[in-house]
Specification:
Elements (H helix, E strand, L loop, with lengths): L22 H6 L15 E3 L5 E2 L1 H19 L12 E5 L6 H10 L3 E5 L5 H11 L3 E5 L3 H11 L6 E4 L7 H6 L3 E2 H8 L14 H4 L1 E7 L7 E6 H15 L10 E4 L6 H7 L2 H4 L3 E4 L5 H11 L3 E4 L1 H8 L2 H4 L9 E4 L6 H10 L4 E8 L4 E5 L12 E2 L4 E5 L13 E6 L6 E2 L3 H7 E2 L2 E12 L5 E8 L4 E3 L2 E3 L1 H8 L5 E11 L3 E10 L8 H14 L10 E3 L13 H18 L1
Parallel strand pairs: 1-11, 3-4, 3-5, 5-6, 6-7, 10-11, 12-13, 13-14, 26-27
Antiparallel strand pairs: 1-2, 8-9, 9-19, 14-15, 15-16, 17-18, 18-21, 20-21, 21-22, 23-24, 25-26
Helix pairs in contact: 2-3, 2-7, 4-5, 13-15
Length: about 575
């Protein structure tokens, strides 16, 4: 069975997608349907300093920055391949990050965002893989950036700096001899205009705009080639999805906390929002008090978060109650599963907030399914965006024909990316005649309103097999988070002679205790046994940690916990 978007959505015509312009032109030119520049809010505002620029000013800054980069790097808009014009961006969030991306696109180049938590070897891998010709970073990450750049042969005169809210001494940045993005913009304002881009029809669908690195549906990080049309399609598909419930003159203040290097922050926040005239309140990193102060100060309407941040908020209600959060209208949760128990708890604490689940991948240019305010269903990832088709495939390769039956989610849409850079094997495994294997186990269910919703069970490779039964770590984690003593949790498989595998929980306590935790561990195990089937019981035990390892986008790094468990068992066996 091919599953499709709900019938209440307007039709989405593929032929309406512009395919011969770059993202920079689409996102900043009113003739492509974006909110008028003079009626839009400031696209990016620093949530700490309050500094920002109008939409018209951002458009001008993009043009000036493109002029300066063209001279700095000896690039011409209509000469050379995009792969000769790759710029890596390794930075905390700033108000100038997206304008930089768009200026690179104005030169027909590729922006390759790098995770700000990368070590020097990890950044080195991306710089070598992408063959980046220049690197833009920020002062807090400069040491790591320099170490990686030296290993890749990127000279220091091709390293540039953003000015961030965390820079408390701008003069010292200049003294270090690195040009800042603001300095380049100033230089560009004194240069002549660039020649117009001369793209062929369909070039936007073939040409890479962003090279983002992702583990994909399996394996090590790979370069994901995202075309201009992929991003443009996403913006138009989301706009179509929201059109029945959003007025054209609605302009929100949106929280910009998620990394601008991650597909969630990059596209959902920083492209969809700018197109509709919203203002993104940019924060460089997560600190609960700074977040709450920004909501209160800038009257933020929409919080786009990952479940770990939502959990912190629900666990700190007394802190939240000290701030005026009355401007908040909606919360979007994505990048990792949000249990219905946590959603219900947050809703009880803030009845006026609408909690909307979304789901997507880097390989789909972000969102696959989205929750409409007219059809909210906790635990669901929402309904398919217009332009999407989905299928569920069973482990034996047959196509599932009914609801409530799990299978691997396989999708098709104009947002499916070009593929993985220089990785034919991964491309053959993931991309099948226009369809993408997501690597996620999902079910399709009909909501009480009668519309199809996507429920993601878990990553297929992370399912725990107990005597042939499949146990989803996310299900147990969502349940354990309702235990009064559990602040955070991750569940992984551990070997078992009788069952093959059994679940083990790594738990962060809400309150410290002086004892060894044996009584609490037994209580947590009993809590699962009371509510879950026997094969889901925590036969692997409970271990307490200070912190659950997670990626910047909020995904639990279960691989690290599995490695930890494997090493502990190896040492125990060695002692015997």
């Amino acid at each position: 069975m091919v599953f499709k978007p709900p019938e209440w959505l307007p039709d989405f015509r593929l032929e309406s997608i512009p395919d011969s312009i770059p993202i920079s032109e689409f996102i900043l030119d009113e003739k492509y349907g974006r909110s008028p520049l003079d009626k839009s809010r400031k696209p990016f505002v620093c949530g700490i300093t309050g500094r920002g620029y109008t939409a018209a000013e951002v458009k001008l800054r993009v043009d000036y920055l493109a002029r300066a980069l063209a001279r700095e790097l000896s690039w011409e808009p209509n000469k050379g391949s995009e792969w000769d014009k790759v710029v890596a961006i390794f930075s905390l969030n700033t108000i100038d990050t997206l304008p930089l991306y768009w200026s690179i696109h104005r030169l027909s180049g590729v922006a390759s965002p790098a995770n700000a938590s990368y070590s020097a070897p990890e950044l080195t891998h991306q710089l070598l893989s992408s063959k980046a010709k220049a690197l833009v970073t920020c002062r807090p990450l400069l040491k790591t950036a320099l170490e990686a750049a030296r290993k890749c042969g990127i000279p220091e005169n091709r390293i540039y700096l953003f000015e961030t809210a965390l820079d408390n001494d701008g003069a010292s940045v200049k003294q270090q001899g690195f040009k800042t993005i603001n300095a380049l913009i100033e230089e560009g304002s004194r240069l002549g205009p660039l020649e117009p881009l001369k793209w062929e029809k369909g070039q936007g669908a073939r040409q890479c705009a962003f090279l983002c690195y992702s583990s994909g549906t399996s394996g090590l990080p790979k370069g994901v080639m995202i075309s201009h049309v992929n991003v443009i399609s996403h913006v138009l598909m989301v706009a179509t999805f929201e059109s029945p419930t959003r007025s054209k003159d609605q302009h929100d203040a949106v929280l910009g906390l998620l990394p601008q290097s991650h597909i969630y922050g990059l596209v959902v926040i920083c492209h969809d929002g700018v197109y509709r005239g919203d203002s993104t309140i940019v924060l460089p990193k997560f600190e609960l008090l700074t977040l709450l102060e920004s909501i209160q100060r800038f009257r933020i309407n929409v919080l786009i978060l990952v479940p770990p941040t939502i959990i912190v908020m629900t666990n700190n209600k007394t802190v939240l109650d000290k701030y005026d959060l009355s401007s908040v209208r909606e919360i979007y949760s994505g990048a990792a599963p949000l249990g219905p128990e946590t959603a219900s708890q947050l809703q009880e604490q803030h009845p006026s907030w609408t909690i909307r689940g979304i789901y997507g991948l880097t390989e789909t240019t972000a969102v696959i399914s989205h929750t409409s305010i007219k059809d909210v269903w906790y635990g669901s990832c929402g309904s398919l965006l217009p332009g999407y088709e989905a299928r569920l495939i069973s482990p034996d390769g047959t196509e599932i024909q009914e609801y409530d039956t799990p299978g691997e989610l396989v999708v098709r849409a104009p947002t499916i990316v070009l593929g993985y850079l220089n990785n034919q094997k991964a491309n053959e495994e993931a991309f099948l005649n226009g369809w993408l294997r997501t690597g996620d186990e999902a079910v399709i269910r009909k909501s009480p309103n009668g519309f199809e919703h996507v429920f993601v069970v878990d990553r297929i490779k992370e399912l725990i097999k107990v005597k042939g039964h499949q146990v989803a770590p996310a299900e147990l984690e969502a349940h354990l988070l309702t235990h009064p003593a559990v602040a955070d949790v991750a569940v992984v498989p551990v070997p078992d002679d009788a069952a093959g595998e059994v679940p083990k929980a790594f738990v962060v306590k809400k309150l410290p205790s002086d004892d060894n935790g044996e009584d609490l561990a037994r209580d947590i195990q009993a809590y699962v046994e009371k509510h879950k089937a026997r094969y889901k019981w925590l036969k692997g035990g409970v271990e307490f940690l200070e912190l659950i390892p997670k990626s910047p986008s909020g995904k639990i790094l279960r691989r690290l916990l599995r490695d930890r468990e494997r090493e502990a068992r190896r040492k125990a066996a060695a002692k015997l």
